[in-house]
Design brief:
678 residues; alpha+beta; five-stranded antiparallel β-sheet; 18 strands; 42% helix; disordered N terminus
């Protein structure tokens, strides 16, 4: 599913021109004595809501894992086993295409040590970890544990000590951590997890509701449900003594339908739990199993067989519906759900899985949207029975709707298979193969709509309607749109469904040159390289500034990271816009500073930060410290327009902003100010 709707909550202050240093994890530490020579170092973190702190075990290729360094271990103590973590959560990230593991709200790390040097008085530990929400921050913390005096004695003079009494609390906060060198200067790239951000969650729930409502409307137009509308409404209006009572009964009937599906959503959420559903939806075997289920549903919709609940269920419920009153109406609604299962079951199943991937109350919201669309016609036609005459007659068109849904189920099935392939990195279903399958599916659907193909339950047809022809043309146009994707076209309309461009046989298209550009033959300035969209970019600030002076252009300073998701989104969806790209190509000098660059600085370039007191030993450290020291910010993406002397030209920096016009206006503001100074 296309996931482009993100708001950078952590940096609303940026929108007002105020930068800030973020530090969402607060640490406390303590040491517990296990034996005369063995101690347990305990690190407890309280993590701000919606932020993730990544585990030691989160895999490569995604967010940066927690790294623990024992500074004075050699000759003083040994580690007993590996550091043990408290409960973490694992979820698949479709941007990085890995299962990431992280702490939420709180976390604990415990490491047992065995002291070998009886004169040891303290243990120094460094943490390097990443915390993420809409942005990510890579933080280094320094902790010092004081060894109790009883441990300093030699083995000949060790005295028995009560374990509980030997506990030493070195509780600290980030501002006064066990070491005075606690810092937050190394900044990591931004990492996006759509369900972690509250506004993103709300938009995700609205998206689920809207999709569910459309799904309910689609189910309404199937042969299992549509013919029941006039039958059921006529029953209420004829059996009720007054029109008002008929309307009331129909409304109760509609509310009963909503209640039944809401209970289904509650049961699914209650049994599995929101986190379990989300974890399940990212599981390899689950994706494979659901691929098989969806293919089965698709075959049923296409007419191979019918999926039905036992007739005895329908008979028992139907007999209860004759009781009358509210109980009878409730059982009538339940009878509708059971009888229509062969059509609604596959839609409800697909919807629940999609909702499960959002977590939280999404299954409940999905069932509400679906059932609302299903119930509304029964209530509205009961209120206005004259509308029944305007309903189209049941016929072959209902089976056409069912077949179309079958094709859509089949296309969606390969998305689940693709998820499994991406997680396993098997490269069986690369982008080109996925697109070829979709082209085949939607191309066949277009032929079906044009009447060139018929399926088992189709009625004889002498002509096709204008509506069917129009829809067929839309499907054909979509199929043609997919074809250039085989040669490297981005296909932004379906972004998120096929595997990413990098997961393909030819990441840059069959020509291997990004659409046939001659970028590879460009003569680059000293210190420059080709960045996104073949933009000339510098990864060294001084060289970029020198070049900007030589060509008399302002600077677009881009604080970014190799693993920065929103940085990539800005490049893919904002920088790729024709108007933005034209500005970046001709009116600014791009300097991209990677704050997670691990290359070690030459010894003579290493230093201690005056701002944070942190040792700056890597290229990423250097650019991170530069961002913190000069701009008082520590998250990416972070954009600034500068003149050739390093002065800001815009009123405020810019961070993640998917509004192309707003980003263009921000760029234009800085560039115009530069021109006025010349």
């Amino acid at each position: 599913m296309k996931k482009l709707l993100f708001i950078l909550i952590a940096f609303l202050a940026f929108a007002e021109g105020n930068s800030q240093i973020l530090d969402p994890a607060k640490w406390t530490t303590k040491i517990e004595k296990k034996s005369e020579t063995n101690y347990i170092l305990i690190f407890d973190a309280v993590i701000e809501n919606d932020w993730h702190l990544y585990s030691q075990t989160t895999p490569d290729g995604g967010p940066l894992p927690l790294e623990i360094t024992f500074k004075n271990q050699k000759g003083n103590f040994n580690l007993v086993g590996k550091a043990i973590e408290s409960k973490t959560r694992t979820a698949y990230n479709d941007i990085f295409e890995v299962n990431e593991t992280f702490f939420e709200k709180k976390g604990q790390v415990r490491q047992e040590i065995s002291i070998t040097n009886p004169k040891l008085t303290e243990v120094k530990v460094d943490f390097n970890y990443q915390v993420c929400k809409e942005v990510c921050i890579n933080i280094e913390k320094n902790f010092t544990f004081k060894i109790p005096a009883s441990a300093i004695a030699t083995s000949e003079t060790v005295l028995p000590v009560d374990i509980e009494a030997a506990k030493v609390d070195t509780t600290t906060t980030d501002a006064t951590s066990a070491s005075p060198e606690v810092t937050t200067n190394t900044v990591a790239p931004e990492k996006v997890v759509p369900h972690d951000n509250k506004p993103a969650e709300k938009r995700g729930l609205w998206s689920i509701f809207f999709i569910a409502f459309l799904s309910g409307f689609a189910a309404l137009l199937t042969p299992c449900v549509f013919p029941m509308i006039p039958m059921t409404v006529s029953f209420f209006t004829k059996q009720s003594k007054t029109k008002a009572k008929g309307i009331r009964n129909a409304i109760i009937y509609g509310i009963s339908i909503i209640a039944i599906y809401l209970i289904l959503g509650l049961v699914v959420t209650g049994i599995f739990g929101a986190d379990a559903l989300n974890a399940l939806s990212t599981n390899v075997w689950f994706n494979i199993i659901f691929f098989i289920i969806l293919v089965t549903f698709a075959a049923s919709f296409l007419g191979a067989f019918e999926i039905m609940l036992p007739n005895s269920w329908a008979n028992k419920v139907d007999s209860q519906a004759d009781r009358g009153g509210m109980i009878g109406i409730l059982f009538m609604a339940l009878a509708l759900a059971i009888v229509s299962f062969s059509c609604t079951g596959p839609i409800v199943g697909t919807l629940l899985v999609e909702a499960a991937s959002k977590g939280g109350i999404a299954p409940i919201v999905g069932m509400f949207g679906f059932s609302l669309a299903l119930a509304l016609p029964f209530m509205l036609f009961a209120m206005f029975p004259g509308w029944l005459n305007s309903l189209p007659k049941s016929g072959g068109w209902l089976n056409t709707v069912k077949v179309v849904l079958g094709f859509l189920e089949l296309a969606l099935a390969f998305k689940f298979l693709s998820n499994a392939d991406l997680v396993l990195q098997m490269h069986f279903l690369e982008r080109e193969v996925f697109l070829a399958i979709w082209i085949a599916i939607f191309g066949t659907l277009a032929f079906y709509l044009f009447g060139k193909i018929t399926l088992p339950h189709d009625s004889p047809m002498t002509h096709i309607s204008v509506g069917r022809l129009s829809f067929g043309l839309v499907v054909l146009a979509f199929t043609i749109y997919l074809i250039p994707g085989l040669w490297g076209a981005p296909l932004k309309v379906i972004s998120g469904f096929p595997p990413p461009m990098t997961y393909s046989e030819s990441p840059y298209g069959v020509s291997g040159s990004k659409g046939g550009s001659n970028a590879s033959t460009q003569v680059l300035p000293d210190g420059a390289h080709l960045g996104p969209h073949d933009l000339i970019a510098f990864d060294d600030y001084d060289k970029g500034v020198a070049y900007a002076k030589s060509v008399n252009k302002p600077i677009l300073l881009d604080f970014t990271g190799y693993a920065c998701v929103n940085c990539r989104k800005m490049e893919d969806y904002v920088w790729s816009d024709t108007n933005i790209l034209k500005i970046l190509q001709g009116e600014v000098v791009l300097i991209s500073l990677y704050v997670d660059d691990k290359k070690e600085l030459p010894q003579n370039e290493q230093y201690v930060s005056k701002e944070t007191g942190k040792e700056i030993t890597s290229v990423g450290n250097k650019w991170s410290d530069f961002q913190i020291t000069k701009f008082k910010a520590n998250a990416q993406p972070y954009y600034i327009i500068l003149d050739n002397d390093g002065n800001m030209l815009s009123d405020k920096p810019e961070s993640y902003n998917s509004d192309i016009n707003a980003y263009k206006g921000w760029l234009r503001e800085g560039i115009d100010r530069y021109k006025k100074t010349k």
